């Protein structure tokens, strides 16, 4: 049960915002960057 | 992928050096949906099949131009956050060279071969799209603003081989700066703010 409550804290607390902050950071790097491979080509 | 790996390594390194990942939750993006939409559309465009269809290629280029404008708008709105001015500058440099090449980032055949990624091009001709990227194949002598294109290459055999641009370097530096400043505990951030206010602050932080 404690695990479930912890999950609830993750989904409603500052952790969710933390995930959002990191997601946007990754997005801005991907959207602005133009290396020669974005996909799994190794680049 | 290079940029994501650099970002992940920086994040882990900063955590190991005592950075506080929870402190990142204090950051507040303005209009974050803009950049999420831009990258979503870009990824869908990058992984579209049938790369050799010329009409589709034109649409792909136009899509990149529009999504870069959206990204630049987002970065301008968030330029007050640490490191974001560097990311803005890097994105603007990438956009400049892409704009004069129909929305694509040029990479030379030599760079592609050096990175061992020549298999990503189906047809070796000037302007051929490079799979899984925003790039087109273009010899340096045909590239306008060549110094802003993907001129830096990590050769095959080394970790994360690939080519990247000056703009990519600035974007990575700005993103690392953002992590480094945002992962400080509130007390150390306040100390630094008071110090930088006394010293006049920095212009690109």
End-to-end C-alpha gap of chain B: 25 Å
Q: Quick one: overall form of chain B? A: globular
Low-pLDDT stretches of chain A are none
Distance between the termini of chain A: 43 Å
Largest sheet of chain A: none
Order of helices and strands of chain B: HHHHEHEEEHH
List the secondary-structure elements of chain A in sequence, H or E: HH
Radius of gyration of chain B: 19 Å
User: For the largest beta sheet of chain B, what order do the strands appear in spatially?
Assistant: 1-2
Instruction: Work out the number of β strands of chain A.
Output: 0
Q: What's the count of strands of chain B?
A: 4
Portion in helices of chain A: 55-70%
Largest sheet of chain B: 2 strands, parallel
User: Number of helix segments of chain A?
Assistant: 2
Question: Percent of residues of chain A in beta strands?
Answer: under 5%
Greatest chain-chain interface? A-B, 28 and 60 residues
| Alpha-beta classification of chain B | mainly alpha
- Overall mean pLDDT of chain B stands at 87
| Integer average pLDDT of chain A | 74
Describe this structure in words.
The complex is a heterodimer of chains A (43) and B (205). Chain A is an all-alpha fold. Chain A is built from two helices and no strands. The longest helix of chain A has 19 residues. The radius of gyration of chain A is 16 Å and the shape is rod-shaped. The relative contact order of chain A is 0.09. The mean pLDDT of chain A is 74. In chain B, the strands form two sheets. A two-stranded parallel sheet of chain B has the order 1-2. The C terminus of chain B is likely disordered. Chain B is mainly alpha-helical and 205 residues long. In chain B, helix 1 runs parallel beside helix 6. Chain B starts with a helix and ends in a 6-residue tail after the last helix. At the A-B interface, helix 2 of A face helix 1, helix 2, helix 3, helix 4 and strand 4 of B.
């Amino acid at each position: 049960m404690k695990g479930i409550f912890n999950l609830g804290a993750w989904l409603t607390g500052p952790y969710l915002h933390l995930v959002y902050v990191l997601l946007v950071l990754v997005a801005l790097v991907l959207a602005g960057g133009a290396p020669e491979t974005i996909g799994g080509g190794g680049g | 992928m290079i940029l994501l790996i650099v970002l992940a390594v920086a994040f882990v390194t900063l955590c190991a050096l005592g950075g506080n990942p929870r402190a990142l939750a204090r950051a507040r993006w303005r209009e974050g949906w803009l950049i999420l939409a831009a990258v979503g559309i870009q990824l869908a465009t990058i992984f579209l099949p049938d790369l050799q269809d010329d009409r589709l290629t034109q649409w792909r280029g136009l899509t990149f131009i529009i999504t870069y404008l959206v990204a630049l708008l987002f970065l301008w709105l968030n330029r007050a956050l640490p490191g974001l001015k560097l990311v803005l500058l890097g994105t603007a440099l990438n956009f400049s060279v892409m704009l004069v090449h129909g929305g694509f980032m040029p990479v030379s055949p030599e760079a592609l071969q050096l990175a061992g990624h020549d298999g990503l091009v189906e047809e070796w001709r000037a302007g051929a799209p490079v799979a899984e990227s925003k790039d087109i194949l273009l010899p340096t002598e045909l590239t306008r603003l060549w110094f802003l294109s993907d001129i830096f290459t990590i050769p095959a055999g080394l970790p994360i081989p690939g080519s990247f641009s000056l703009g990519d370097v600035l974007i990575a530096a700005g993103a690392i700066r953002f992590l480094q400043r945002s992962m400080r505990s509130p007390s150390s951030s306040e100390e630094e703010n008071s110090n930088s206010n006394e010293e006049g602050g920095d212009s690109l932080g």
